[in-house]
Write a structure and sequence with these properties.
Blueprint: E1 5-11, H1 18-26, E2 33-39, H2 46-56, E3 60-64, H3 70-80, E4 85-88, E5 94-95, H4 99-110, E6 114-125, E7 128-134, H5 155-158, E8 165-168, H6 169-174, H7 188-199, E9 203-214, H8 227-241, H9 246-266, H10 277-288, H11 302-311, H12 313-338, E10 342-346, H13 350-359, E11 365-370, E12 380-381, E13 384-387, H14 389-395, E14 400-403, H15 409-417, E15 426-428
Parallel strand pairs: 1-2, 1-4, 2-3, 6-9, 10-11, 10-14, 11-13, 14-15
Antiparallel strand pairs: 4-8, 5-9, 6-7, 6-8, 12-13
Length: 430
């Protein structure tokens, strides 16, 4: 009988995580699955664990890949698959027991090219594991309805994960959608996703969490110092495929900016680092051939920001270093203020979201957000509910407060003072 979903699991030296990953797959409510494990000749015992599981469950097949390439491994899995839908599961992660059943039922009911869910990331911090919910859409109305990715400019910016959903196998095969088989395991998903978004006509996002992504794993590709090479390889790959629309270009520019910022921290903000400067020259040459008219009327986008970075990289690095040092100082001030106490963040606008990004992977215990704006009540920032101030204090009476917007600090402080919160328990974010 044909499997409903083929789960493709590329692996290389993940002996610490592979058991939990496979256990989460075997615990799926959906039983009509095939599990395709493509291992790139692991040397840490991963292969032995795969064989142990395969011997006890006939749905598991193991393929050995001579190429240590995430793209090549996933492509081998696609070629070996026979299910109605394809899922890609990274073998240091895990999934909820109902994830694939929920996705499959929706994909079949609405004849979708793909269907995806929200996800949560988790990482070990100093006082245990920290879990952060990642919602694909801030707008709740974009969940549970059919979207047309080929005509929807927001999707390529907001949905950057290959593994949070399932893809119709016929859609993938008929459109010859493949991953770049460059070495390593970084950024090959961009090419795949951009092909999907350019060609898909029916997609849906479900407002539930299914996938658990391990963040900050030692040795993970996201912290590889050669990451700009991977971004430029993927840029070249999409050009070779003839897939360089405006939105693809903006996504690539955003990736280059993001990874440059991350890399600057790793090299101590050295503006002359050989890990960065050759790729600045490369991307500068690439962008000179792109006419400004191609970008429409927007000026605040990743293309324009990348142009500004290239025009005065030394100044960009100095500003990035100053921002990093300021952020680290504020995190320390907040840590000293809270001293292990739980907190409520007052303000869910841009300043509140900036605080979320700042504190996301610290060990500070945020209980919720609060706001006076009625239209925001009931929404979330990450995993945190947005409540009215009075309701937040009633639900979490022993919390300290962080006011997100110093420009409104006086009336906000007065408001929570009236609810019995003392000035000593209020921190104003600068």
């Amino acid at each position: 009988m044909k499997a409903k979903i083929s789960i493709i699991m590329p692996s290389y030296n993940v002996v610490e995580y592979i058991d939990k990953c496979l256990d989460s797959v075997l615990s799926q409510n959906l039983k009509d699955i095939e599990i395709i494990c493509i291992d790139a000749n692991s040397v840490d015992g991963t292969t032995d664990i795969l064989k142990k599981y395969a011997n006890s469950d006939g749905r598991i097949q193991i393929i050995n890949s001579e190429k240590k390439s995430y793209g090549a491994q996933v492509n081998r899995g696609i070629d070996a698959s026979s299910g109605e839908y394809i899922a890609i599961l990274e073998t240091d992660d895990c999934i909820s027991c109902g994830m694939y059943e929920r996705l499959y039922d929706s994909a079949r009911l609405y004849s979708l090219d793909y269907c995806k869910m929200n996800w949560q990331s988790f990482s070990l911090v100093k006082n245990g594991y920290r879990y952060c919910e990642n919602r694909i859409w801030d707008d709740k109305n974009r969940y549970g309805c059919i979207l047309i990715p080929s005509e929807d400019e927001k999707i390529s910016t907001c949905d950057c994960t290959i593994w949070s959903g399932i893809y119709d196998r016929n859609f993938i095969i008929n459109n010859n959608i493949r991953l770049n088989e460059s070495p390593g395991a970084a950024y090959q998903d961009i090419g795949f996703l951009m092909q999907v978004y350019e060609k898909a006509e029916r997609a849906m996002y479900i407002d539930e969490i299914g996938y658990c992504y391990r963040y900050n794993r030692p040795g993970a590709s996201t912290w590889n110092k050669n990451v700009l090479k991977y971004v430029t390889d993927e840029w070249n790959y999409l050009e070779e495929l003839g897939i360089i629309s405006e939105r693809v270009l903006l996504r690539l520019c955003a990736s280059f900016l993001c990874e440059t910022d991350k890399l600057l921290k790793m090299v101590g903000f050295d503006s002359n680092s050989p890990l960065i400067t050759p790729y600045l020259l490369w991307v500068s040459d690439k962008m000179q051939g792109i006419e400004n008219a191609y970008l429409g009327s927007e000026t605040d986008n990743s293309f324009c920001r990348l142009k500004m970075m290239i025009s005065d990289f030394k100044n960009y690095v100095d500003l990035a270093k100053t921002k990093f040092e300021n952020d680290e100082g504020i995190k320390q001030q907040i840590s000293d203020f809270l001293n292990g106490a739980d907190c409520i963040i007052f303000g869910s606008g841009s300043y509140g979201r900036r605080l979320y990004n700042l504190l996301e992977w610290t060990s500070e215990n945020i209980m919720c957000y609060c706001d006076n704006s009625a239209e925001r009540i009931g929404d979330k920032i990450g995993a945190y509910d947005i409540l009215l101030p009075a309701d937040a204090i009633k639900q979490y009476p022993h919390c300290k407060f962080i006011i997100a917007n110093k420009n409104s600090a006086v009336p906000m402080k007065k408001q929570i003072n009236e609810y019995g919160i003392s000035d000593a328990d209020i921190f104003v974010y600068c």
